Write the structure tokens for this entry.
Amino acid sequence: MILMSPVGTLIENVTRVSGLGDKAGTLIGVLAGFMFAEPGGFMAFRDRFCAIGLGDVFDSWMGGHPNMRYTNGNEMRHALGVADMRVIAERTGLPESVLAGVMAAAVPQLVRAVTPGGRLPTAMPADLEPLARTCAQAEPAAVQDRDAAPARNIRRWRWLLPLLPLSLLAYCGWQGSTADSADAALKDTRHASPG
């Protein structure tokens, strides 16, 4: 049962500190995949925090450190960048407006869980892989809706396609008759005017 496992404990901790409820598991799965997927893996993820002067805070999250320090949503957004925060929001289904604050509570818990004894992992822990894989395979509803919308629009207007060539022919015929009428009127005015 997942609640008896280390991953279950992690999800319970994240649920408690973030108030996410059922979405806590999804957030952990997405973050774990994100944390280990980029080139350089976990160390590259840590480097993002070091680059903005939060390396010591990040290190306090690691499993062997006795005193965890925390960051806020703005620092989390600054460390990860707007584009990656948007990707995480899409994958978790969480609004961007709340994601940074939730991640400020969740990321330290996840880092602590993947660094037992303060050791830096070289790969995603095996017990997190199924959750990360499940979250990667489950396409977010927002993405599904976005991808389905063009197909729905095409189906909705598909019946107009046969009318397009007919409309084009009718328009060309109308243009031709208008041009003929204009030519006839021009000839009439030439004959009527004294030469």
In short: The chain has ten helices and no strands. The longest helix spans residues 163-192. The chain has a mean pLDDT of 78. The radius of gyration is 31 Å.
